[in-house]
Amino acid sequence: MSAPSVAKRVGVFGGAFDPPHLGHVALAQTALKQLQLDCLHVVPTGQAWHKDRPLTAAADRVAMARLAFAGLAPVLVDEREIMRTGASYTVDTLQELAREYPQGELFLILGQDQARVLSTWQRWSDILRLATICVASRPDSIAASQLLDPKVGPQAKSVQLEMPRLDVSATEIRRLLAQHCSVAPLVAEPVARYIETHHLYQTA
Asked: What is the mean pLDDT of residues 2-13?
């Protein structure tokens, strides 16, 4: 990947990645191509303030993310949020990256569900100042500005990432695994092997 001081277009793709699935990979591929990114930071969540369930151990989620995104360049699995103590906020990550890429432009990649509630995020107005908001949607969907939280939309620099329909979610994958069902079509093969080897998601 480009050196931090050189990269001009920097993507930021955060999430629990619990587990990372083919929808995550497709979104990363779309962002790299459509936004012409010099690098993409995939950032597994640390202590997520908005999650109402315990996350799988950070070491496992990072390992699975490395396996899931291994075939994509220039992707960096970024561990900064899991290294923090206390709640982890996207705005802190963006501020750090802005310092690391002083000549760069940041692009924050979100799914539609996240984009709809962006005004509930910590210091969301600073997020808008720091990054262009990139919202994943189907090609026949409405404009990115309309996909955003109504409180945020008028103020945000936004881009629509045109995604094919992919009916896959981490919640459904965890449910299937708890029932001892195969998830091979939904996650990369190395991720499926890691889950099996480490006996993850075996209880509901």
From this structure: 79
